[in-house]
## 1
Amino acid sequence: MPNPLFTPEVKYLLQENDAHGMKEFCESLHPATVGDALVCDLPVEQVWRFLKHTRIKHQAAIFEYFPIDWQVQMVEGTGREHMAELIEQMSHDDRVDLMRRLMPKVTESLLRLVDEANRRDIATLVSQEANTAGALMTTDYAWLPPGLTASEALDRLRLQAPESETIYYIFVLDEQHRLTGVVSLRILILAARHALIRDIMENQVVSVRANEDPEKVAKTMAQFDLIAIPVVDDQNRMVGIITHDDVIDVVVQEATEDVHRMGAVGPITENYLETSFVTVWGRRAFWLSCLFVGGIFTVWAMSRFQHAISTVALLALFVPLCISTGGNSGSQAATLITRALALGQVSERDWLRVLRHELQMGLALGLSLGAIGFMIALATHAVYDHAGEQPPAAFTLGLVIFQAVVCICIWGTIVGSMLPLIFRRIGVDPGIASSPFVATFVDVTGIVIYFTIATMYLL
């Protein structure tokens, strides 16, 4: 999204062709701020015109903060030689994300202009399978052999630091490039000058495989409070690191997908206001159509008990009250269990414990709501116009509502808690057991429960 604070200034500098002002703007502000300010209603050519007044290193830093779709447009708006030079300055993981989005012919033409070392690095990262730890990692990391002293290690780090993504963790590798330990920059600075790296390093290193799921990587980093985690192959040879900023992107993406699915919307990765109308319509219409068809069963269930409704019309007044109880309690349970699954707090193996817990919770909630329903039934009976109808006794009506609410609430919590576990078991995203999905299913079954109890007592 454009930065409304700086966008007018950007346009003014371009209009005045103020080269010094554009240079100062690019170099005095954080690259993220500059990137936000430039992503406005300017054409791509004007953005490049603005950026050319700063050094290529600053251009690359700003370019990385552009949305990926905007980056793709920017590639088409400049010469291949200039873009290749900029790619060489970009962080390794960001430039690979860009390469994956470009047309194959464009990628090929750019790679021919990149130096051999960067070309090999890009090819290695691009070859990683999508949606894996390898696809997130960067090969920019600081490493040391175990035989150096602390003083020698600091001298070597001064050479590595300009090219490394982070130097807070320095990884210790043997002659075969196998990961043997890790030392923090703090420990290295505080160590005696002649202390050996092998003596001050941490031997128990938390690492992940290149083919692991990014969500698992995020959980591991959160569990151990890491700002970077090494990625190794099957022989424990180090191939890269994943930094906290990339993990944040994964967490946001996963949370967004879960929220969308729980709202019965197909996941939308683009900016809400910038996503095409047809795309949003399609993602929403599909699930709404499914839920709409599911709602037809509510009509069918009501038709099965039309005799009870025509005999005791008072029953129809409590249909919304009873079925909303089941839908709301089921949605609560589905939300809690889906989130617990995402955080690793429960798994499919815990289904019996979850069932036992939700049975008790459903009963407690049902009794609480049922008591309220009982009082509402008595009050409604007192003010209802019974003309031409033989009404049930007020206490009997209240008892029907009480029992129906208790049973529907218990049923709703069971359905809402079990569906996410069942979906996870069969390999489907638990987020699909969304609140609207659970509510629609419990609505249909809740009507059957309600009128079955009513028929037993009143007819």
## 2
Amino acid sequence: MRKLKLLLIILLVGCTLEKKETQISIQDRQIMINDVPYFIKGICYHPVPKGSESRDFSSLTEDLEIMKEAGINTIRVYEPITEEWVLNEIAEAGLKVIIGFGYNQGGNYDILSGTFVDYIEMFKDHKSILMWELGNEYNYHPEWFEGDIKNWYTRLEAATKLIHRIDSKHPVTTAHGELPDSLALAMAPSIDVWGMNVYRWDNPETIYEQWASVSDKPMYLSEAGGDSYMTISRDGYEEGVSEKAQEDANRNILEDVFRNKEIGSGVALFQFTDGWWKAGNPETQDPGGWAPNSSGVPYDGTPNEEYWGIVDIDRNKKATFSVVKEIYTQY
């Protein structure tokens, strides 16, 4: 009988600990896990191999080891991870993931079809999940919403409320292009954490004071960073491949982020690996590419889309990796 009681106690303690591991909440301007402030030391992650245009997690084990070395604690993905083994491995590595949902993905767990709810129902108890994220810079694309961005904000608010009804364990966020204006804030009041894709050269610091003046909710930089290619010679950086430009820009950006922890809840640096699929032949690394509102990209005002990784496509560490590791592991 004593052994049975002891076994029951162990099981109850284990259940309590497991429950605490997934206790995510919002308190004032902070994201909390088990009542402890959680600061996002993040990376945007969309691994596409050479010659392909499709996401592929075959390098996940190696990638997670590199991320852990860099002090990364959070992965941000732009579309749902449907492979449960991937979520399991992320959780086992001790990282959290922000799951992004697109608006129109052909009915594949997207917002338009409402099938994103099916995904949340399947994985809302998975210990890897940090937040659900709705959309990425959609405020730059009113043409996707019958020419009226209000249509997006209406659908964003409705989707947020729906998630709150089916999952009380995880906050809902959105990746907004730059600082949300009064229209966005008024039409989507149920968003728990505002993500902002911010490219203000190598100094995003002003976003924090601006945010504090319009909202008391948590925020994080859902994208920020610099690429390793200079389209022109400028500020002492030569035209062409320039890991030094990326290294310097990311140091300045990350230092700003960590100086403003009283307002911001972290950053998802863009991005983990170079993406050869984005601007030309996926068999080669090409300069160029396009992104909306990208004139603030350091230090040439041009988003050379295939040069943003902290590692290259073969997982060789670029110069900026040491900066990320230094800052993420120091704080």
## 3
Amino acid sequence: MVSRLSDDEQTIRVCLLISSLEFGGAERQVIALARSFDRDRVKPTVCSLSDKVPLARLLPDEGQNIRIIKKRGRFDFTAVFRVARLLRQESIDVVHAFLFDAEIVARLAAPLARVPVVVASERNSNYTRPLLHRVALRLTQPLFDVMVANSYEGKRFNMRTLRLPESRIEVVHNGVDVEHFCPNAESRRTFRARCNIPADDPVIGMIGSFKRQKAHDSFLRMAARVHQLIPRARFLIVGEVLRDGYAASRQYKAEILELAKSLVLSDRCVFLEKQNDMKAVYNACDLTVLLSTREGTPNVLLESMACGVPVIASDVADNSIIVLDKVTGHIVAKGEDAEAATYALELLWDPAKRIQMGAAARQHVCRHYSIRESARKMEDIYRVYLDRRQGHPVTNWRSPVSARTGASS
């Protein structure tokens, strides 16, 4: 295939294709990557298959493009041809797809537009794919060059379920904008006042959409244990009902609200929809807790730690890699809400330890999980796979996963 890159132009034109730009983890990572790429290396175009794009406002005008190619129903195959037209018009070198609809559209559109490199994604792990998804993903496996998973567990999951060889999957953990997500005493005071939370009340936060894998029930059972010993404790629960699977998500939220009532926690819990200023949410908390049953790389853990707020997380996916146990937070076994309560009480009773752990958490994220570091790794992957397609020699390439002994299954 003929290279689209001239000798004097080394910028790679990348299309970040995603199913929507609503308030989800994958969607937020797409925006963060688009904002963080080195413009001398990558020129990004963001394309959504839905007109629901509230996060698009976070894209700066300068050097940014946002395109909406609305998918008109579940089986709208015209989206493939419309995306292919966009890829040709923008002379795209690499299309990087996020979430199932975008994955399939990208794999089918790229050959039509003669795009050299297709990058697939895995944002989760250890879930059950619908039959239609399994069939579509297997049939289109020859149509992508490399999959980028945001966790080693996600890599192993795809090796196991899709029989992908290790060499076709790279791992790049999520990154966080450490300049935006940072400790801020003023936002702490302002947000607590807006929520009628006294300045000196202990606050434990949980951030997550209403889907069962987030285990809000475990969080509430932990909260009940904490409340018994610290009656003034507040529990800040931030998240929204999913647009996809709305009925099931709404039913799940109703169950969680009923559980809070049965645990006599209703007056201690503050339930909020997703907030525009998430930095203020984290800063309003003394610690955050995420007891999910499965994950990829949870943005909320990285964002909380970047704000200097220690975390307690279940030992799923790569949580034990990104959270240094007993240094930046605590890792507990899945379903161990009693153990989580013990650690929460320990941190609430020992402010000095909590502050020390929060400072270590921010330092750890700034050093290893900044969005700029994630973007740099992604830029390297784009360059290497594009060079391979163009028949250029690849030198000094070290896969982002090569340093981890846990990368293989």
## 4
Amino acid sequence: MTPVVQLDEMVRTYFTGEVEVPAVRGVSLSVEAGEFVAIMGASGSGKSTLMNTIGCLDRPTAGRYQLNGVDVGGLNRDELADLRNQEIGFVFQGFNLLARTSALENVELPLLYARPTLGRREQKERAARALALVGLEDRAGHHPNQLSGGQQQRVAIARALVNEPRLLLADEPTGNLDTKTSLEIMGIFQDLNGQGMTIIMVTHELDIARYCRRQVVMRDGRLVSDQAVRDRLMASGELDRLRQEHQAMNLSP
């Protein structure tokens, strides 16, 4: 089976004046369909550059990148945008929701660029299904300022899913959330992964990475570790534990 992501000796170098800044140095990485991968590393390790390349937001300086068997390096800007819109869903640390727009309308936004163009009714139906996937069907008419941080991130996840992508990219998706809400979001990711969604997530939090199935660690632009998660955590179990702790605290004199 063709990997969803295939990087072969990928290099990305930036130039500041006459100074070369190597961000990624010869990374080879294969991600199969249905994997849940955490990309980790300190600031400046190259993980964000790697994620931007996988998301077709940036191009390699050298090496090869194939997304679902398509050689990304041979695509022009419009072809790259079409591939990105059709194949990839993005979730960011900042929710990036339009303030004066309902949850349903925020989720519909990627469908405005879909090819072929969808009818208005189908757009609403698909957006409603995406909201139902993250448990927010009853908040479809609410604006972002009427939603909690966790609910806003759920809307952002629904927006990423509405085009039915094969790959979901999440960049520090729990960075702005408290512990309980972070676990709820990781629970959603685990459920989606259980349904077959391929997920790649950038995080600097080891505890969050343990909810994934595989951890990739970068340092100085190079991949230094790639291993399966041995002691994988399940978000639902951790949430139950937190609730029990909170109940015990409330009951204590």
